[in-house]
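Hi,

I'm pasting everything inline rather than attaching a file, because the server keeps stripping attachments. The sequence lines come first, and each chain or strand is labelled.
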Amino acid sequence: MRKTKLIFASFLSLSLMLGGCSGERTSSESDVGKTTLTFFHRWPKEPEKTYFNEVVKEFEKQNPDIHIKTEAVLNDSYKDKIKVMTGTNNPPDIYFSWSDEFASQFVRGNKALDLTSYYKNDPTWSSQLVPSQVKPYTFNDKVYGVPVTMDGKMFFYNKDVFEKLNIHPPKTWNDFIDVLKVLKKNNYTALQFGSQDTWTISHYVGTLNQRLVSPEVLAMDYNRKTGKFKDDDYIKALEKFQELLPYFNENTNSIDHEYARQQFSNGKAPMFYAETAEIKLFGPTKFELGMFNFPEVEGGKGNPTNLTGSPEGFMVSSKTKHPKEAMEFLKFLTTKHMGEKLVTDVGKYSAVKGTVNENNSSPEQLEAVQSILNTEEMAPWFDMSIDARIADAYLTGTQMMLNGDKTPKQIMRDVQKAADTVRFEAGK
Amino acid sequence: MIKPDKFVPYLYLLPALVFLLLVYIPIFQNIGDSMYNWSTFSPDKAFVGMDNYFTLFKDPVFYEALKNNILYAVISIVFQVFGGLIVAAVLEDKLIRKFSPIFRTVYFLPVVVSMTVIALLFSFFYNPEVGLLNQFLKMIGLNNLALPWLGDSETAIYAVIAVSQWQSIGYIAMLYIVSIQKISPELYEAAEMDGANKIKTFFHITVPATKEMTFVAVILTLTGAFTVFNEPYILTGGGPGTSSEVLSTYLYKTAFSKDMMGYASAIATVILIITLLISLVQMKIFKTGKED
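And the predicted assembly:
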């Protein structure tokens, strides 16, 4: 029995020691004098993964006393994980965030660092960022994020098929339906759509909302404190979406966006609603690629030329122990050199001015970027503009509408209920 | 004479203490949390008493998820428990016993493959245009059965449940094989001499003799059916819409997408109560599960 006691006691003390040691390691890294930053982004896939790894390596080479730990999870998981991580005592120092409402929730919860002073004190750096892309990260006149990419959503089409059938990019919704009718009559799956992930639905619904609903009503409803979503135009927007159903491929809910994109890029479907950043992902197409903005919807009260799209960028944790070093990294990430590298390696459009040029972009990409820069006003992604709970009611409901399981009126009733809850909480 | 050490027995209790701390305290904490409204972004918790539960019992998605879990339970019992027993009985039958090691491996292999791998595999398998299932159905002429399995609200949950059955039958079958091997072969010989056929021996010898294992299998299957997460989350994410939500995916969405922690705690407490009830009822029916 003596021996057993001894073994037990030593085992216990050993495990306690080990437990205590592992606690130490998470707070500050072992290297003396080195600052460690945690960098959390949403691209564990190529080509972004290699791009960011290379940027980090280059930065560490130029700043030998800073070490950056990178972590990445994919899109939808990122949305969940970042909320949890910023709620802990050890949030990531630099983290990716979509703009508008998504970023605003971090600002409201005091999880984001105010970066306005950095912008003001370094005008050489801050003036090279496209201003329309900084605005979506600005709240109450303070800037909380650094945009890294800019993006817009357009209809891409097969110019060869259009020429063969003698149809042209439509300017209005009725023209658009006519074009779809002609394509369908000629046995094409006119418009390819993969709605398994609900964000694809939010892009259609968001643009339709922006086109149909008056800007004042839209602004009021997208605001958490005042949103009611009682306007009939929202139902109209969903009904317009339903008008597209006969021209989509079958079973959109079983197909994801990547598969739908492949169907377009290998010539099986002549039209696809996609982000300008996806041009590189189409790869070299066997047909000539064309693009047009979402058409004007007759009777719509919103600006008919708005381009739906948002920047993507990074924010700094309000709890970071190394704000200066974190900003150094973000400034490095948004230098002209790194911006051009982003365009060449990844095919995304850097929010740094002048980075997209003939040397690193195809003519289609240049055309796309011009649309973004020329657009009078950008309409941010719908699911990033409203509270997550309203987005959930809207998008899961619309997904069921695509299956014929829910009507626009039923969806809006659920949305109104969610909006009531959000309004109640926001008012407190 | 060796003096009985007074100290050592308490050392043997330590693991139970650890269990108490790490498992039971959070369970009670969660029940407490369900009476507040809180999120990861707001610093304060608002006490709302039983409000979350009242909302929950009026929530149509909750009932849809519960219905899906019940479907899961019923189908799992039929396929895994009953099906598993049949598979085990067949594999342990005198004639097949020589070949059974190969079959055992074949049936058990899905159990050890990572759930994530299986879910991704079946996502492809169920693809309505290029997936293996629909291609096969079209090939044998059953075109109108080539449905969008994961994209149709009617079929989504069944497609998900089917994947779970494929994975778990082998596990329960293995448990039953162990149990059947303990049955004395003399019973079978006697029955055969009395003229009983295979089906009769199955129902009169195999089934009663494996009663204890059935008890275990039913508990495993039922609690598994109410706590399942991986399959629905990876295959459909609860969709399309909310047609394939189960309690645990609804809990995940509520907690991490919608940031409603108190409400999620309420869902978790309901899952706890359901699984607790199942275990208690079962123990009563099978009368404590002691070997007799």
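The first strand of chain B starts at residue 36 and ends at 37.

If the labels don't parse on your end, tell me and I'll reformat.
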